[in-house]
Amino acid sequence: MPHHTTHTDGKKCPKTCPAHTPVLIVGGGLAGLTLALMLGRHCIKTVLLDAHPPPKHIPQRDIQGDTQGDTQRDMRTTAFMPSSAQYLKHLGVWECVAPHATPLRTLRIIPIIPRNRMGDPVDFNASDAGFDAIAYNLDNHKLRIALCDAICRCKSVTHLYNTPATDMTQVDNHWHIGTADNIWYGDIVIGADGRRSLIRKKSGISGTTHSHHQTALVFTVRHQHPHHNISTEMMYADGAFTLVPMPRPDESAVVWVEKSPQADVLCADKHALHTAFMQKTQALWGACTIISKVQSFPLHTHMAHTNTVDTIALVGESHHSLTPVAAQGLNLSLRDSAVMAELLINAHHSDWHIPTVLKMYHTKRVADVKTRSMATRVFDAMARASNPLSLGIKTIGTGVFNRSKTARKTAIKTGLSFPGGTPKFMR
Fold first, then answer.
1. Of 1, 31, 56, 118, most Cβ neighbours within 10 A?
2. If you count DSSP H runs as helices and E runs as strands, how many of each does the chain have, helices first?
3. pTM of the predicted structure, to 2 decimals
4. Minimal CA–CA distance to 84: which of 335, 328, 340, 326?
């Protein structure tokens, strides 16, 4: 049975009687949770349909980094840009998760040249651009717990756990969203249900999907040498190999992109996994021990042709999904959430004109999404390319960045800025 956090009327409506809410959010990932919480904090009646169960609080042993026995925990972390951290402050959850967030003072890019030799590294230091950190690395599961706990205290939000959307039909001017035991409709329906979005599919929004035939291996390691708050990305031809600092100076989160067949072999053989991992590190961190379970995520990119139709808006991966290169994906999704929240809150205080909200949302988000998607594809392709021309370009590029603090500063500021300006709740 669904787990209900808050109820709008205290009783459930029969499936033959659609239930109305001003805002209906489908999908309980971080984009959907942040949007629901911000709307709830501004007293906008919202229903959140969440396919996930309520999160289990992490035992104390896991806070210290040892998660070997936890079979349910999502091991992924995200490098939250300063603007995303600011959004979490506006949401009132940053104080709760900040002790578990690791500031990334430096982003180190290491090109890997033929015969797996390391090229000249480039260090992008946050201080060069006037920032305290380029990003803050945080466990996604810890953030989910904080967001769900905060939503519990919002009387305006009905958070329905274990409640995936199962069907969707258009009736007059509204879309009716079916669940196992209810039908819901809203003045606006927010599709935040991920890359396999039912909302996107049923509303007729087409798009392009590309399989990279790569898999991301995700786990936590303990290493001999401290990370010094340096996030290191080694650009192998088979995919990026990244160690992102965790709160302990001798622990890092690993995001290792590998060709899918090889990733399958490594997941099935712990000894082969550790051997290959140590080869990839090239001894930069000294002796390493894998201290968590290993999760694998096949990589696909998707881009919907639009993010709005009728009374529907797409946020997060229902609209766009990117590879994990440069940590753009979730930060992009949170900007969707922040922009939509601002527009709905403004409408709540004026005429609640949803067509205007949808038009403005499309206009405000299209440039950012397209430029980030293109930049990620170009960076990924150039980083992995091993032909002589690409190697020459990479060598020249790293030389320019290493010689010019101004070039590094410009790159950092460009990476942390947005077309059209920073959303209100990210300032």
1. 31
2. 12, 22
3. 0.91
4. 335
